[in-house]
Amino acid sequence: MELSGLGIHDLIKMRDKGEVSSGEILDSVYGRIDRVESKVAAYVTLTRDEALKMAAKADREIAAGRGKILSGIPIAIKDNMCTKGIPTTCASKILHNFVPPYESTVTSRLIEAGYVLTGKTNLDEFAMGSSTENSGFHTTRNPWDTERIPGGSSGGSAAAVAADECIAALGSDTGGSIRQPASLCGVVGMKPTYGRVSRYGLVAFASSLDQIGPITKNVTDCALLLNVISGRDPLDSTSAPIDVPDFMADIGKDIKGLRIGVPKEYFIEGMDPEVEEAVRAAVRKMESLGAVPVEVSLPHTDYAVATYYVLATSEASSNLARYDGVKYGFRAEGRDLMDMYMKSRAEGFGAEVKRRIMLGTYTLSSGYYDAYYKKAQQVRTLIKDDFEKVFRDADLVLTPTSPTPAFRMGEKSDDPLKMYLADIFTISVNLAGVPGISIPCGFTRDNLPIGLQLIGRHFDEATLLKAAYAYEQSTEWHKRKPAL
Amino acid sequence: MKYEAVIGLEVHAQMLTETKIFCGCSTKFGSEPNTQTCQICIGMPGVLPVLNGKALEFAVRTGLATHCRISEYSRFARKNYFYPDLPKGYQISQYELPICEHGFVEIVTDGDVRKIGITRIHMEEDAGKNIHEGGAYSFVDLNRAGVPLMEIVSEPDIRSPREASEYMKKLRAILRYLGVCDGNMEEGSLRCDANVSIRPAGQKEYGTRAEVKNINSFRFVEKALEYEIKRQIQLVEGGGKVVQETRLWDAARGMTESMRSKEEAHDYRYFPEPDLVPIAVDGKWLDEIRASLPELPDAKRKRFVGDFGLPEYDADLLTSERPVAEWFEEVVAAGAQPKAASNWMMGELMRLLNEENRPIDECAIKPEQLASMLRLIDAGTISGKIAKAVFAEMYRTGRDAEAIVKEKGLVQISDQSEIEKAVDDVIAGNPNEVGRFRAGEEKLLGFFVGQVMKKTKGKANPRMLNDLMKKKLGG
Hints:
The complex is a heterodimer. By secondary structure, chain A is an alpha/beta fold. Chain A contains 15 helices and eleven strands. Chain A has helices at about 10-15, 20-40, 50-65, 105-110, 155-160, 180-185, 220-230, 275-290, 305-320, 335-350, 350-365, 370-395, 415-420, 425-430, 460-475; strands at about 45, 75-80, 115-120, 170-175, 190, 210-215, 260-265, 290-295, 395-400, 435-445, 450-455. Chain A has an eleven-stranded mixed beta sheet, with helices on both faces. In chain A, helix 9 (about 305-320) packs across helix 11 (about 350-365). Chain B is an alpha+beta fold. Chain B is built from 15 helices and 16 strands. In chain B, the strands form four sheets. In chain B, strands 2-6-7-10-1-11-12-13-14 form a nine-stranded mixed beta sheet. Chain B has a three-stranded antiparallel beta sheet with strand order 5-4-15, with no helix packed on it. In chain B, helix 5 crosses helix 6 and helix 14 (about 445-455) crosses helix 15. The interface between A and B is large, with 45 and 28 residues.
């Protein structure tokens, strides 16, 4: 297999034995990009020159015996995380020319760990969407079927990992934006516990829900990457002052007696039968590995999507106020200040972003606040309580990640509500702040990947990774590659 | 009809922290535009605020000093509005759960002590500044963006412009005692908005209020309120109605003007700030802060009245600035009689200091030196009148009173015979006036005394001189 097709831990092994250099790994990855990027369109910005410098530096450090865990590993970053001196656009026209003079905490940690940046990946504008069709620049294609969307909003990162255009990637997840595209692209994606990973430098969509996480080719790589990016950050008050365990420690341990909650509310009408079948088969597989399935109930699941769209849009309407044409980014000329504001925002933002800003402005307005925002916060508490109750009877919860496999481009883009339902299984996790991981669990007859989601207790990513690894190792799904 | 004014003040106080409230930028005043900024205070994408612990401490100190309840659980909120000097499009402030609530300060008007309630004190960040220099574009200076502010909101307990001014002075004194704000209204580190309404005297219900903004000098607090109260009374007496609105004080024209009506008021869409965790105040920390508070103006004032027997008026004035109060206490500690010390400080010393706008801690005279001078007066070595000249010399040079008196030969003449001789000379030299005096023109006494003082270069003991003169003239 080509180097670009390998995972992080495979390459680390080869690198540490001196079998491969950072330069060679990067050559392979960029060779792959040169061949398939025109079909996948995963990236917004390719940073080839920067990558060459970083790989050369990694090789020098390795030669000097100062190699680090990720030395020479090419990783793609979703284009809503700030990278110093490198454009960070959020796939929005309003930030098309924005070059941050600072580094996000996650990428700072990757730099310290020796990583090589392949480029910045495409997303739905400001991470608002489930298909990358809301990107202000272009739609990314699903490597398994380029007529289909890769999911979103981290569709660029998931597609880049699936197409071997990088070894791993970072995404961000506000309502499913890591797990849903990971599922649709047949890769591993984790949203860690809220507060596990610093948000400093992540361009905010909904601050109380956003969380950065890894998108990788296998569970081991996910654990490895999570080790690097996790931990308290003095620059992010909401990052948790909680010790970070070694997420590799439980990888490979057995899952005998592990209670796996299967919530009845997650197997709903309208769900793709092939998805349901694959997920039910996965439950049986886990059982065969010694896990104990238990039926559980998350009774407030029905309210999750509505709750999410009130809270996320409320926060977004405020978070996106800074894009006003005054300080940076796109500015339209106007007759006066108000005219400049209105034109800059009207022309700079895409339709979905504007829709959400309007929705959030409305739900925070005086006279409506109690009926929407406040009520949604109360329901959020109930949803969180649901999980707490379930975790008395189960060690983790297993659900489908997405109700359907990858849909066709344009299939849902005219119907925002239909699009919002793509995240129906992932949204509760963000509202509750608990960790969730999506791993491949099968393919449809059309050879489209299906993902399953495991949900864990607050700050118990280790159990998720242990179970995910056990399942992964008992299947072959993660070894399949798209024929591009 | 007689009307009563009802006034509540919202005071913004810039905190004297070294760095901004949510980032590490300096808060120094007067630097080149946009040189004290970073990605956080200019609101770049992806950045996050982190609370400056000092700002929290300063707000808590202020809350304790104004008898507030310090909230165990408090949080920040976003106040959303668009303006070029507001880089994030929202101000991080506090809304539902402010850090301090339910306090009061005491003010003294006409010798009476009154409590003015404090509704709340909350923390927030300042905005930047728009600069208009003409031309097609305006400029924005964000040096001030993120400087920590306290908003101190009073109850509508204030009943006159005079009380409002006293309240502002007292608040300023407290803030300066605590070292949390320099209280400079002219430089904008202390700003005041007023909610004003009127009602017929005796009525319980409040009238419709107008908010008066832009009162940016101590001088204008009373003026702006007097104008606004008069405006409302005239309006009502003319059959009109006060409308709820925001009005701007125009200092140049000495009037308030409507800025926006209630209908045009912003909807700030407040909601809890998700980028900051709620503040839980630790009881032990609170005790430490409480223990570290200095003696505050009210306590000092009461002590000055109780321990030193000073009138309320003197005590209030002397305690309005901590360094003045401390200076006074040092004079008294050096043995001076408190009322005499107070008289000299509030009279001569303040006059001289005010003339050149010099703070008391830069005064050439040391407190012990004033005490020594007061001893010379008590001992009869110099007269009060001579003392004024000596004091001016001390102020100019920082030398001791004794040295000046000795060098210039200013020692008071208390020798009976010497004064008597001068008195006799003056009586002999002015027979005309002596006649008039004896005919009943008693106010001429001053003339005779003045003549003797002239002869003795002011050194004659005034009491002895007076007695002698009366006796001789009467004889």
